[in-house]
Design goal:
The complex is a heterodimer. Chain A is α+β, with helices and mostly antiparallel strands. Chain A is built from 10 helices and 4 strands, in the order ααβαβαβαβααααα. Chain A folds into 2 domains: 184 residues, no CATH class; 97 residues, Alpha-Beta Plaits, CATH 3.30.70.3040. Chain A is elongated, with a radius of gyration of 32 Å. The relative contact order of chain A is 0.15. In chain B, the strands form 2 sheets. Chain B has a 6-stranded mixed sheet with strand order 6-7-8-3-9-10, with helices on both faces. In chain B, strands 2-1-4-5 form a 4-stranded antiparallel sheet, with helices on one face. The two termini of chain B are 18 Å apart. The longest helix of chain B has 16 residues. In chain B, α3 packs across α4, α3 packs parallel to α5 and α5 runs parallel beside α6. By secondary structure, chain B is α/β, with parallel strands linked by helices. Classes of the chains: A alpha+beta, B alpha/beta. At the A-B interface, α7 of A face α2 and α3 of B.
Chain lengths: 314, 223
């Protein structure tokens, strides 16, 4: 028979979901304060990881932008057998417009073609003396939708275009398109590979850092297990800590990225002359920024959950 | 309170740490587990707080068969067991109050109740003036008393101690032994694993001797 008076169990604090959540958040914040060094190490690692990935994305997004500008130069020009009357021209335009992949169809009259030619010869207009506007043929210039701006799609497009009655000749800078397509495929492949390796490396480093920081606190996990804490009770504050570390790391990385962008990079476009049309490098679109932030939070959370699995055996 | 029936435990296939242990510790009893290093004392204690599950045999604690428990039931068993170690296992970056409070936080107690109860137990241990110190500022004896406070603060049914006086001087050993006796008087079943002969002789309690994973001396040998 036990002489122990049964423990007079006081009214439980932090009852209910909100109460327990508040308790765990407070516990996580206390843990961060009491283990400030290991927390700073983890946050620093996540910051660097997200910064590396975001810089890579910044470069990639801008290259995509440049390539998109370049691809707008892919244009198909169709010449006619004979001059067309306005109704004939209208029906031809609608036939061309009906071909899948067509973005915009512009008619270039003989006069306009001649004027453009004159523009190009600026300073040497004398060469055109005695030449009439008749010398150049009229044409339609067709710009393509972005999905059709690669060499295979263009070949197929041109084959259909040639079947349109009245069109005799089609030009589209075949060699340039081929080179451009090869280059872009290479860029995408290299980007994907580089991005994947970078991502794997970052995940590996962050998860190992978190593992080490949790390892350094394995005594705490052990003691909690000894005094009868459930797995959830042990893990919850660590997971919240992981999420907070991830959010802090990602937030810091994005602040640094924004700072670097406005300090150095937003004018770099001119310097690099990638794309004279744009005034500088573009910043990441909001979706990417949100994605990076969420990735940081996930890194912290998943890093913690996988590490805890090893150390919480209760 | 504690019953072991024909318990075998192998760490790997070749190494058998415990060979057919039969042990019965009635409620409110105080026993010493003794024997040379490697005899299986710590292993036996670890079976009692379900840190290990026997390879064969049954372990029954307070009427519950540990071998049949699911992983999620074990924490609830441990809430009725206090454990102390030779190396104290205190958290160095938390105060004495926070170290002892862990046991009650796990039970979901409110902060004010925790503070009152922790102060009360620390006063019993003669440590109320160290409530806000961190363990590294305490002597070995004081640290072990904090560990004991953590183990006893929720008045557990069983107190397990693994070489609790291994790092302490004679004066502190007596102090710790008295705390064990006090807890025992209040009804806690106490199991102390030690090879400290003086501690055992001073206490006049039942002794169970282990050697090479078998019980070699004590009332349960014949079983």
């Amino acid at each position: 028979m036990s002489l122990n008076k049964p423990v007079k169990r006081p009214k439980l604090a932090n009852e209910g979901v909100v109460g327990r959540f508040t308790f765990f958040v407070n516990r996580a914040l206390l843990n961060i304060r009491q283990n400030i060094f290991v927390n700073l190490v983890t946050i620093g690692t996540i910051t660097l990881a997200i910064l590396i990935i975001s810089l890579f994305m910044l470069v990639f997004v801008n290259l995509e932008g440049v390539s998109n500008d370049w691809s707008k130069r892919v244009q198909v020009t169709a010449y006619f057998e004979q001059e067309l009357s306005p109704p004939e021209l209208a029906s031809l335009k609608s036939l061309v417009q009906a071909i899948p992949g067509t973005d915009r169809v512009t008619y270039v009259s003989k006069e306009e073609a001649f004027n453009r030619f004159r523009e190009r010869l600026k300073g040497q207009e004398l060469l055109l003396d005695g030449i009439t506007t008749d010398v150049l043929p009229s044409s339609v210039e067709i710009s393509l939708k972005s999905a059709s701006r690669n060499s295979d799609a263009i070949s197929a497009y041109v084959a259909r275009l040639k079947k349109v009655p009245g069109i005799t000749e089609v030009q589209y800078g075949e060699e340039w398109v081929q080179r451009y397509t090869t280059f872009m495929n290479f860029m995408r492949m290299a980007g994907l590979l580089l991005g994947s390796f970078l991502f794997l490396a970052v995940v590996f480093i962050v998860s190992n850092t978190i593992k080490l920081t949790i390892y350094s606190r394995k005594e705490e996990l052990e003691i909690l297990g000894l005094v009868g804490a459930t797995r959830f009770f042990i893990k919850a504050p660590f997971l919240i800590e992981g999420i907070l570390q991830g959010a802090a790391g990602a937030g810091l990385a994005l602040v640094i990225l924004t700072g670097c962008y406005y300090a150095f990079l937003h004018n770099a476009g001119n310097f690099l002359s990638f794309n004279p049309a744009a005034s500088g490098l573009a910043f990441l679109p909001p979706v990417h920024i949100a994605g990076l932030f969420v990735s940081g939070v996930l890194l912290g959370f998943i890093g913690s959950i996988t590490s805890l699995k090893r150390f919480v055996s209760v | 309170m504690i019953q072991l029936h024909n318990v075998f435990l192998s760490y790997q296939k070749e190494v058998t740490a415990l060979h057919g242990i039969n042990l019965r510790v009635p409620r409110g009893e105080f026993i010493f587990l003794t024997g040379p290093s490697g005899a299986g004392k710590s292993t036996l204690l670890r079976l009692l707080y379900a840190a290990l599950i026997p390879t064969r045999g049954q372990v029954v604690i307070d009427g519950q068969n540990v071998t049949r428990m699911t992983r999620s039931q074990i924490p609830y068993l441990r809430r009725s067991i206090g454990v102390v170690f030779q190396d104290f296992k205190l958290l160095p970056n938390r105060t004495v109050l926070e170290n002892v409070a862990i046991t009650l936080e796990v039970l979901g107690w409110g902060k004010q109740d925790i503070n009152k109860k922790v102060y009360h137990i620390l006063k019993q241990m003669g440590l109320e003036h160290k409530i806000n110190a961190t363990p590294l500022r305490l002597s070995g004896g004081e640290q072990q008393r904090v560990a004991l406070a953590r183990a006893l603060v929720n008045d557990p049914k069983i107190l397990l101690a693994d070489e609790p006086t291994g790092n302490l001087d004679e004066e502190n050993k007596d102090l710790i032994l008295n705390i064990f006796k006090d807890a025992n008087i209040r009804g806690t079943t106490v199991v102390v694993a030690t090879h400290d002969k003086r501690l055992i002789e001073n206490s006049h309690k039942r002794i169970v001797s282990l050697d090479k994973g078998k019980i070699v001396e004590g009332p349960d040998v014949a079983q």
